[in-house]
């Protein structure tokens, strides 16, 4: 498994200034997970057949990929939803931007022990993702389900347990890495999780206690992201990447993966969604 080490020191010799000439190398940093990794490998085969050199680094880190793109070490990254990106930019004084959507993934509250939210006992332990954007998604669903009350003035991506104004069941919140939800599923009373991660441990979407609507989930669609101006300054690279990632072989892969659990978001308007996220 490749990892990003000393991101700032890796940019010499392959920084953005050196890349704008005739270089036909595309450099990507991608999360090491099937819905990101496998479409990238399909795109790689397409792009290499078109004469591009394709250099992908696969990681599990969710912090360094944005810094690596910002530093010019990589052209793009593919690992995050746009609400996470908005919060990351604000927290780190960056201006990385999404350049096209890839897929939407339904997320919800699941439980091994209980069949409804109402059955959750007083003091139930609920696991939420530790990152702010996804943490707020779980809190919003619990509020919509009537278990808690929240400060409705806060955007979802900024919600935290500190914004809970009423918690009559005295729910106990455990914050965990979003990728480890499947590992603790049996150890807590309920989890907020991505359907694809739970499907990997044979928890089916129909077992969900409460699920996000399509519109609730859109700000959390997964996107390929780049430095600002990438589309305008390097249109050939942008079009090559977008065409390969939005190709029919990639669409078919998503259709086959987990019986089509993930929905390609190729036709979603990335600029409108990004404007909406930043206005919230």
The rough form would be described as globular
CATH class wording of the largest domain = Alpha Beta
Structurally, how many domains make up the residues?
A: 2
Largest sheet: 6 strands, mixed
Radius of gyration: 19 Å
Q: Helicity range of the residues?
A: 25-40%
Between the first and last Cα atoms, what is the distance in angstroms?
Answer: 37 Å
- Name of the CATH superfamily of the largest domain: Periplasmic binding protein-like II
Q: Return the string of H and E elements.
A: HEHEHEHEEEHEEEHEHEHEHHHEH
CATH architecture of the largest domain: 3-Layer(aba) Sandwich
Strand content of the residues, in percent? 15-25%
Low-confidence stretches: 5-21
Q: What structural class do the secondary elements suggest? A: alpha/beta
CATH topology of the largest domain: D-Maltodextrin-Binding Protein, domain 2
Main location: membrane
Family: Belongs to the NlpA lipoprotein family.
Keywords: Lipoprotein, Membrane, Palmitate, Signal
Pfam families: Lipoprotein_9
How would you concisely characterize the structure shown here?
It is found in: Membrane. The protein is α/β, with parallel strands linked by helices. The chain has twelve helices and 13 strands.
């Amino acid at each position: 498994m490749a990892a990003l080490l000393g991101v700032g020191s890796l940019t010499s010799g392959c920084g953005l200034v050196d890349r704008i000439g005739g270089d036909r190398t595309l450099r990507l940093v991608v999360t090491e997970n099937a819905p990101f990794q496998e479409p990238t490998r399909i795109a790689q085969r397409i792009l290499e057949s078109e004469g591009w050199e394709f250099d992908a680094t696969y990681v599990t880190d969710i912090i360094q990929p944005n810094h690596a793109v910002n530093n010019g070490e990589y052209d793009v990254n593919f690992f995050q939803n746009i609400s996470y990106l908005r919060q990351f930019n604000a927290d780190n004084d960056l201006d990385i931007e999404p350049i096209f959507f890839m897929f939407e993934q339904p997320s919800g509250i699941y439980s091994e022990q209980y069949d409804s939210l109402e059955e959750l006992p007083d003091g139930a332990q609920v696991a939420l993702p530790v990152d702010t954007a996804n943490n707020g998604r779980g809190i919003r669903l619990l509020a919509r389900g009537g278990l808690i009350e929240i400060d409705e003035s806060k955007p979802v991506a900024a919600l935290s347990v500190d914004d809970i104004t009423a918690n009559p069941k005295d729910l106990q919140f455990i914050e965990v890495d979003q990728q480890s939800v499947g590992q603790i599923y049996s150890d807590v009373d309920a989890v907020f999780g991505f359907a694809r991660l739970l499907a990997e441990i044979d928890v089916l979407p129909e077992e969900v206690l409460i699920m996000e609507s399509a519109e609730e989930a859109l700000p959390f669609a997964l996107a390929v992201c780049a430095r600002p101006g990438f589309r305008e300054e390097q249109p050939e690279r942008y079009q090559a990447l977008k065409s390969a990632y939005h190709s029919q072989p990639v669409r078919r892969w998503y259709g086959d993966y987990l019986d089509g659990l993930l929905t390609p978001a190729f036709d979603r308007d990335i600029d409108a969604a990004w404007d909406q996220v930043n206005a919230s």
